[in-house]
# Entry
Amino acid sequence: MKEDKKISQADIDNAKVQLGPLAGIPVRVYLPVIYALLLLVILFLFLILPGISKYGSYLEFDGQPSPAAVYSEGNYKGSSEQSIFFPAGTYKLNIEHEGFGAQILNVKVGGRLFGSLFFPRKQSVAFGLKTEDAAAYLQKTYAEYSAWSMSGKPSALYQIPTVISEAVSNLASTGALYSKSSSLPTNLDFARDVASASASAESARDGLRASFAYTSSGIIGPLSLANSARTIVAALGSSAGFPGYAQDLAPGLAQRISKILGQTDAASTTGDSNTGDSEHPAVLGKKYLTGHEFIIFSQGSLELESEAPSGSLISYTKTIAAFGLAATEVTNRQWARFLNENPQWQPANKAVLIEKGWVDEDYLAAWNEANDLPVTGVSWFAASAYCDWLSTKSGSYRIGLPSEAMWEAAARAGLVDEKSINRLAGIWSDGRRSGPELAGGAGYDKSGIADLFGNVWEWSSDSYRPYPAFAIDKLKTVERSVRGGSWANKQGSVSLSSRGGLQPARCTPYLGFRPALLNP
# Structure
């Protein structure tokens, strides 16, 4: 390229771009028109088009209990705590929450064309659900709370949901607790039953929040909080098991209690101070009913010592009405009579029983009707059905599963001394045994009862609670208590305070039962 044709920096600096006419239209005319059109397009894209493509409103729900589920035409749309978009139109919405009656709302949804991208249209929807059965809802969530409580200590990866406090808040928010019906526990009973199912400090915190909300009926204020605190302290402090409970779940609190009480060990306070000189239940005699021999015990008071999940022993006193306890565990031969008259419980009907939640796959797995071995593979529901059947055949007498207190009263009465359990003859593991032995085969204790320890564990009527010292039993936990040990346990490994909990539908080869006469 020739030197005079090269473009210099000066040429670049002095260069100018100048628009010319477009189709004969001067620049000063068409350029403003182009700018105006561009502005209109931008305004349309941001202010009008969103309203056309998404013409409708965000529904915001205001009501209790919350969060509730929102359905439209049978399709789940979201939670009442969310803003949910609906295109303009008329909708039939179903607002639902477990334990509460569904509410159907006909909602007309409007829309907005202009500015909906920046200022979306919002529409408020009010709702209010009513509980169908407050007592049933509370019982269900309490059972769920007890299951979570006994599932182990939480960690960073696993946390216990606050099911019981949320349930109480839901009931309070809908007014179901303002005037507590007779079907609901009293404030004291609720606080004690919740404490009895708290197996860790974390679950106890949820239970404590629930107790405050329950006793105050959800009305939070200085006076209601003070009243709730007095109620909870009265509920827990009235039990001799409270210091031990506090020692397990809140050692710091237990130390402060010890100082107040002038004690050196918070767990050392046992027994009730007002039990007086009540006598322990004693053997009165025998009664034969419906093919069973019952040992009759008098009424009385008994100091129980229950084993908590921590391994600590919590003592408390229980007053027991007169009762009778079968001398042996129910045998296969006795169970056969029940099956003959109650075919719905036959092994052939197991699939139906499983569907109803009354048994599991191991129901009557080792069933043999022609022997006097203890019947095993029976669930709590099946054992209760057997006792109900006996009641129908015993005239005015009522037969059921024994409570833990009844079982322990009979066990204590049969021991020569508190330590003789370790020397008691019984059906224990010997390394070769693969199942139970004949009912009563190891002999009878001094009260005339066989196999309270060993052979098979035995169902009780009580819900399993980590801390039964507080239990009022107005609310049922998810598990039922078993006592006594079995042929699979080593001798000396089971004590008077040994106890466990199983789902009521559970059936195992280590577990049977014996009936109790509840009105001798």
In short: The chain has four domains: 3-50, 54-128, 134-238, 283-517.
